[in-house]
UniProtKB/TrEMBL annotation:
Name of the protein: Leucine aminopeptidase, putative
Keywords tagged on the record: Aminopeptidase, Hydrolase, Manganese, Protease
UniProt cross-references to InterPro entries, sorted A to Z: Leucine_aapep/pepB, Macro_dom-like, Peptidase_M17_C, Peptidase_M17_N_1
Protein's organism: Roseobacter denitrificans (strain ATCC 33942 / OCh 114)
BP term (GO), one: proteolysis
Segments forming domain Cytosol aminopeptidase: 308-315
UniProt family annotation: Belongs to the peptidase M17 family.
Gene Ontology CC: cytoplasm
CDD domains in alphabetical order: Peptidase_M17 (cd00433)
Length: 460
């Protein structure tokens, strides 16, 4: 795979990273010519500022990147990436000013800023490339960036080219890359093998529903990732309005996230046993689409009343979670673009999650801080269990009233996991606007934080 860093023999320009409080001291050590140039160009070391400093002959002798203040840095992440995107095309080598404690994430941000989605049109590459900084595990950082690229590409690809067969092909490619095994239950075989909810949600689409089952590793803790793979969601017979349907190519963002996380795990090879389950479907409208008011069976044996066909993600996840639990893994993680309620609660930047295991919560929160991968814990609020119990069936897929939509969805999913430690992530999977290291479009969320938790679980 092509390196994300500059080639070792490339000529580099020294890059000095300067925060606002250190600028005057740094300038005091420079020549009067450099001082005059920096001041004349208005470089104040603010986040996102970048400046080339020329020699007397006009050739660049150094570059400067603003690092702001502690207060301004607290309002975002990947601050070096903000300057990298503004530097002219060249190769740069960090010469000074990068805090050791933040160096790995700042360098990762630079790599993430170079992402371009160029499948359908020419996109200009970011010209500024970075030499491998000494003292960092740059191979690991490349793996993290490659995983994010995989996730972004999958989400950004429209549904005409990212239906269930295409999502399966992406999983097959990843399995082949890492020597994992993969099995797929397809179409009516879902009924024969007792996955009735996955089949019901996907049966109205021209492209058959399927359950993708990938396995890697045979030692250490057993960890199962379950990702929602709704490749397009019309809402079914409870048809979404046009404005709400426009981004539904990203409704397979949970699957894209678990595939990105799986790439990290398999490339870094911690001592764990990994399983990835992806129910891949399209929620379409046709004569055989499931209906509001239907009562459906599930793999676990619980009956589900359908009060809104647009609450389909929890249905396909339910069968996959029940199947995951049958293998008694140590940890089950589900990731899904599940509810609008989660976006209302925490916005697009935070990944809300549900888990009652204190060891998992502590490990995740610590990893999220270090990995610049923010998460926010939400409650499995048991008193709300009655809201998902309609009386006519065991469970209700869309409780009326509109309250606590993300919590009730999480409680619904928890009914299908009995003994394993369970964590559910209700992610958005999308950056609505450009930010340093995070361009507008598909996005991975919580995966680097989860990697930290999983690596801490490994055993010899």
């Amino acid at each position: 795979m092509t390196s994300l860093f500059a080639d070792a023999d490339d000529q580099t320009i020294p890059l000095h990273i300067i925060d606002e409080d250190s600028l005057e001291a740094w300038l005091g050590d420079q020549s009067q010519t450099v001082q005059a140039w920096v001041r004349a160009n208005g470089f104040a070391a603010r986040i996102g500022q970048a400046l080339l400093v020329p020699s007397d002959t006009g050739l660049p002798v150094m570059a400067l990147a603003g690092f702001g203040t502690a207060k301004s840095r607290a309002r975002g992440r990947f601050h070096l990436a903000a300057a990298a995107s503004k530097l002219p095309a060249a190769c740069y080598a960090i010469a000074s000013g990068l805090p050791q404690a933040q160096s790995d994430m700042e360098v990762l941000g630079w790599l993430l800023a170079a992402y371009r989605f160029g499948r359908y049109s020419e996109t200009g590459a970011m010209g500024a490339r970075l030499a491998r900084p000494e003292g960092l595990d740059t191979a690991r950082l490349e793996i993290l960036a490659q995983a994010e690229t995989l996730t972004r590409d999958l989400i950004n690809t429209p549904a005409n080219d990212m239906g269930p067969p295409d999502l399966e092909a992406a999983a097959q490619d990843l399995a082949q890359q890492h020597g994992a095994s993969i099995e797929v239950v397809l179409g009516d075989d879902l009924l024969a093998q007792d996955f009735p909810l996955i089949h019901t949600v996907g049966r109205a689409a021209d492209r058959a529903p399927r359950l993708i089952d990938m396995k890697w590793g045979d030692r250490g803790p057993k960890i199962t990732l379950v990702g929602k793979g709704v490749c397009f969601d019309t809402g079914g017979l409870n048809l979404k309005p046009g404005a709400s349907m426009g981004l539904m190519k990203k409704d397979m963002g949970g699957a894209a996230n678990v595939l990105g996380l799986a790439h990290m795990i398999m490339a870094l090879q911690p001592r764990i046993s990994l399983r990835v389950l992806i129910p891949a479907v399209e929620n379409s409208v046709a004569g055989n689409a499931f209906r509001p008011g239907d009562i459906l069976p599930s793999r676990k044996g619980l009956s589900v009343e359908i009060n809104n066909t647009d609450a389909e993600g929890r249905l396909v996840l339910a069968d996959a979670l029940a199947y995951a639990q049958e293998d008694a893994p140590d940890l089950i993680i589900s990731m899904a673009t599940l509810t609008g309620a989660a976006r209302v609660a925490v916005g697009p930047d935070l990944a809300p999650y549900y888990c009652d295991d204190p060891d998992f919560v502590t490990a995740l929160e610590n990893a999220a801080t270090h990995q610049c991968d923010p998460v926010w814990r939400m409650p499995f609020h048991t008193p709300y269990e009655s809201m998902i119990e309609p009386g006519i069936a065991d469970l209700d897929n869309a409780p009326k009233g509109g309250f606590a939509g993300s919590i009730t969805a999480a409680l619904f999913l928890r009914r299908f996991v009995d003994e394993s430690v369970y964590a559910h992530f209700d992610v958005y999977g999308w950056n609505p606007s450009d930010a340093p290291g995070r361009p507008k479009g598909g996005a991975g969320q919580a995966t680097r934080a989860l990697l930290g938790v999983i690596e801490a679980m490994q055993t010899s």
